[in-house]
Design a protein that fits this description.
heterotrimer; A mainly alpha (about 290); B alpha+beta (about 325); C mainly alpha (about 280); A: about 290 residues; mainly alpha; MetI-like fold; two-stranded antiparallel sheet; 13 helices; C: mainly alpha; 2 domains; about 70% helix; globular
């Protein structure tokens, strides 16, 4: 699609795009290029020069059991966050959609956590489950369960998943509710007249009609879990215990800034770059399809 | 006030030629209507005069001055758009005043000019409203008001009535004509509606496929079309076309055109036909006939003449002076 | 809405169960926030001897006053101000440069137009997390560590906002720009007088989303603000936890957490309609 009318001039439009292009070039393309370039070198032990190693950093990276473990951790973490937050959100959206009055009130009450930063969400959940002062962990203790996410890998993963999913429910709820409300009531009533009960209606009519929303949220939530949950993990577990919650983004940070291993960190950035590209292409394909809908 | 001259104006978009060379001389104060089917290039031609479209070759002159490369605002024109193109966030007053503000006209004069135009167009009660709070006809008037306040030398209208309902269209048509006479301004008006063209134009330009087929006074064009296309496009119901081979005295390859009102029905006729169906419209009656070879013909007769029964066989005839003949390319012979 | 009633709508017990389900959901959402609020109104001893109370105490002014004026590493009032500058800078900056570039791309034909378009599009694929180390080096070379420019600039380029405005400009009728040209408006005049006022709602909706995005940044401020005076509130909270085995000052930390939530929550709840619109539009 193009505009029929265009203003004349060449320098004015170039001037207009210049700020964005300049910022993009300096803060996006140059660093991304640097990451790719650096991923092909290792610094010598004295830090004076860089030595060309080709794909050596990548070979080393993928032979590193910690890095491979981090891939698995990321996959487990992303899937859990996506499933938990989308599941709860869909459940709440289906309930809210059944109300004639009051769904607006519930919406107002449920969108709050969107505004809460992942790092703050991390602090809130850390406080509840803190091994010394946490209310929830104390009550669990009373019930005979000894909660300790500082030592127990499974509990650590569970806690970061819940804290990450918690903040994401609002977003998913809004999109699911909008998707549900867009389904014509006549279709559902027709199914009801055909004798389909609620669960059958949901399974055979509502859920299929909701599938564009679901697919979209799936992609967006995976991207969220990959990149935007850094704050949760940094505040609650710092990637521990024994790297059990070190997702890929966290590892770029800890190897690059804490460990000062620039070659490896750069190679990891490149791997992430490829992952985002794939996710973006998937998302873009989806958008394209929706345009032709 | 100004004359407008188009000299062999051509337009192509990439490799597609849309205007193949148009020449028009418009006198000062004249109302010219460019009429044609959609895609004939009439809007493009108007937009070239406006300066919204570049001119591929040829010349556009306004008041004797070549304006090919001059910005729209410096051409001393004003334009009324099909969808009005009112600025949605501005009041009626601001919409009309916007061009004057840009031209740095003093505030008091802007107020005067807008007030005069608003009075002329009966828009005074609505000056503080936003376009969305107005009816279609009122929006149309605001669009015209925006053109009037600038006191342009030439008015350009791009299908200004096509978004209005039929009744309002007739009313606005009369208003536009009255306004143009009163202001004495040169006007160039584009439409696909031949009734608008007939009623508004001092002279009309019938366009077909990027070419001006005929330029002339509406009644002259109606009475004496130069091409088969013009004969068919102007007039409703359209001119009947008959293959020359069917008509005694004409040869194959020639087409005969006769307007519905020129067809007479009587027994001895030049051709024989039967009545397929009739439509009584009140003041007149349309009689649709079918010739023996299957081609169709429409005749128009006064309501006072008895209506023939459907299925009845009749003879068809016409006066020689009313017969128009066209060659194989559609040119008048 | 008559089409809403009928056999699909639940009544009686079903309706109450629906409300019950939603209320449980709301409680699940609110419980962590409530607990943080309670913790921010009680004394430290009440917290460190579990279980802590579940109803607010009387230390509200004491704890919040202490947090705002002295905090732990830096006064929280200062961190709030830093966050405000960062969030406003990112939101307004993104909106400004995106408006300009979308205007250029939609309304002009110029060399490299398609190239620029794709360059901007590609930035979708480069979240700051992916390029942290080199971006950090760029900022360090510019001497922008511990500065507002350093906090804002790398996050200002946004493909999303550019696309949103491009999309909107495409829906503006061509005749409006033509009418403005006939009225004598030069491109920038058209942009300021016509296009900007028409984009008001879109700008506001996007502002809500971008403000929250900016406010909630964590990793980037964590990297480039080593000086506590430049900390933003969201990243500053973590810095308040003591290293080692010391006991954290929970009431002040929780008061800070609540303070960190208040501005974005006010924006979301107060501008709910715009927020929902912005969310839906920016994901299109």
């Amino acid at each position: 699609m193009e505009k029929r009318v265009t203003f004349k001039g060449i320098w004015l439009p170039i001037l207009l795009v210049a700020p964005q292009i300049a910022i993009t070039a300096v803060f996006f393309f140059y660093p991304a290029g640097q990451a790719i370039w650096q991923s092909l070198f290792i610094p010598d032990p004295f830090g004076f020069s860089m030595q060309w190693v080709g794909l050596g950093n990548f070979e080393f990276l993928f032979s590193d059991p910690f890095y491979r473990a981090s891939f698995v951790t990321t996959a487990v973490f992303s899937i859990l966050v996506t499933v938990v937050s989308m599941g709860i959100a869909l459940y709440l959206a289906v309930l809210a959609d059944r109300l004639i009055k009051g769904s607006g009130t519930y919406r107002t009450l449920l969108i709050w956590p969107y505004a809460v930063a992942p790092a703050v969400a991390g602090v809130l959940w850390l406080f509840m489950f803190n091994t010394r002062v946490g209310v929830v962990s104390w009550y669990l203790g009373q019930l005979g369960y000894d909660w300790n996410h500082v030592l127990n890998e499974g509990e650590a993963m569970g806690l970061v998943v819940v804290a990450s999913a918690w903040g994401r429910i609002s977003y998913n709820f809004l999109f699911f509710l909008a998707g549900l409300q867009a389904i014509p009531k006549s279709v559902i009533e027709a199914a009801a007249i055909d004798g389909a009960r609620f669960w059958t209606r949901f399974r055979t009519i509502v859920f299929p009609l909701l599938s564009p929303t679901t697919f979209f949220l799936l992609v967006v939530n995976i991207i969220y879990a990959f990149f935007e949950t850094f704050g949760v993990i940094h505040t609650i577990t710092s990637g521990g215990p024994q790297q059990a919650t070190t997702i890929l983004v966290y590892k770029v940070y800890s190897d690059g800034f804490v460990g000062q291993d620039l070659g490896s960190s750069a190679a990891q950035s490149v791997v992430l770059l490829v992952l985002v590209s794939i996710l973006t292409v998937v998302q873009f394909k989806y958008i394209e399809r929706r345009v032709h809908y | 006030m100004a004359t407008v001259t188009l000299r062999n104006v051509k337009k192509s978009f990439g490799k597609t030629d849309v205007i193949h060379g148009v020449d028009i001389d418009i006198a000062d104060g004249e109302f010219i209507v460019i009429v044609g089917p959609s895609g004939c290039g009439k809007s493009t031609l108007l937009r070239m005069v406006a300066g919204l479209e570049t001119i591929t070759s040829g010349e556009v002159q306004i008041d004797g001055k070549v304006v090919n490369t001059i910005e729209p605002m410096e051409r001393d024109i004003a334009m009324v758009f099909q969808n009005y193109a009112l600025y949605p966030h501005m009041s009626v007053f601001d919409n009309m005043a916007y061009g004057l503000k840009i031209a740095k006209v003093p505030k008091s004069e802007i107020a005067d000019r807008v007030a005069t135009a608003a009075k002329l167009l009966q828009l005074e009660p609505y000056l503080q409203r936003k376009p969305r709070e107005l009816s279609g006809g009122q929006r149309q008037r605001v669009a015209m008001g925006r053109a009037i306040v600038r006191k342009p030398a030439v008015f350009l209208f791009d299908e200004p009535l096509s978004n209005l309902d039929a009744k309002l269209r007739v009313q606005m048509r009369l208003e536009i004509k009255a306004l143009q006479r009163e202001l004495g301004v040169t006007a160039l008006y584009v439409t696909h509606d031949q009734v608008e063209a007939m009623t508004l134009a001092d002279r009309m330009v019938v366009m077909n496929g990027g070419v001006a087929d005929q330029i002339g006074k509406p009644l002259d064009v109606y009475a004496d079309p130069q091409t088969a296309f013009v004969a068919g496009f102007i007039g409703s119901p359209p001119t009947n076309f008959l293959d020359g081979g069917l008509v005694p005295g004409l040869s194959n390859g020639v087409t005969l055109g006769i307007r519905p009102e020129h067809i007479q029905m009587g027994d001895p006729g030049r051709l024989s036909a039967h009545v397929a169906y009739t439509e009584a419209l009140g003041a007149e009656t349309l009689i649709h006939c079918r010739l023996t070879d299957g081609s169709q013909l429409t005749a128009r007769q006064d309501a006072s003449v008895p209506i023939p029964a459907e299925g009845q066989s009749i003879g068809i005839t016409w006066e020689d002076g009313h017969a128009m003949t066209f060659d194989a390319n559609g040119r008048r012979l | 809405m008559s089409d809403h009633t009928g056999m699909v709508e639940k009544r009686g017990v079903g309706l109450w169960l629906t409300h019950l389900g939603l209320i449980i959901g709301v409680l699940f959402i609110f419980f962590p926030i409530w607990l943080a609020f309670v913790a921010s109104t009680v004394t430290q001893p009440e917290i460190v001897r579990p279980p802590m109370p579940l109803l607010p105490g009387d230390q509200f002014f004491e704890n919040y006053g202490r947090a705002l004026t002295s905090g732990i590493n830096a006064p929280v009032a200062l961190m709030l101000f830093n966050s405000l500058v960062m969030a406003m800078g990112i939101a307004l900056g993104k909106i400004a440069i995106s408006l300009l570039s979308a205007f250029a791309i939609v309304y002009f034909r110029f060399p490299l137009r398609k190239t620029f378009f794709w360059l901007i599009f590609l930035t979708l694929m480069l979240p700051v997390e992916v390029r942290i180390v080199p971006t950090y080096e760029v900022i360090a070379n510019f001497g922008m560590l511990n500065s507002y420019q350093g906090l804002i600039l790398p996050l200002v380029a946004s493909a999303t906002a550019t696309f949103l405005f491009r999309q909107f400009f495409m829906t503006v009728p061509d005749e409006l720009a033509e009418a403005a040209r006939v009225d004598g408006a030069k491109p920038m005049r058209f942009f300021v007088d016509i296009l900007l006022p028409m984009s008001r709602t879109n700008i506001a909706a996007l502002f809500v989303i971008l403000f929250i995005y900016g406010w909630n940044q964590y990793l980037w401020p964590l990297l480039i603000t080593t000086d506590p005076e430049m900390n933003t509130i969201v990243m500053g909270i973590k810095q308040m936890f003591p290293s080692g085995d010391d006991t954290a000052d929970w009431p002040v930390i929780m008061a800070t957490s609540i303070l960190a939530m208040v501005p974005p929550v006010l924006v979301v709840v107060g501008m709910q309609r715009l927020f929902v619109r912005g969310l839906v539009e920016s994901e299109k």
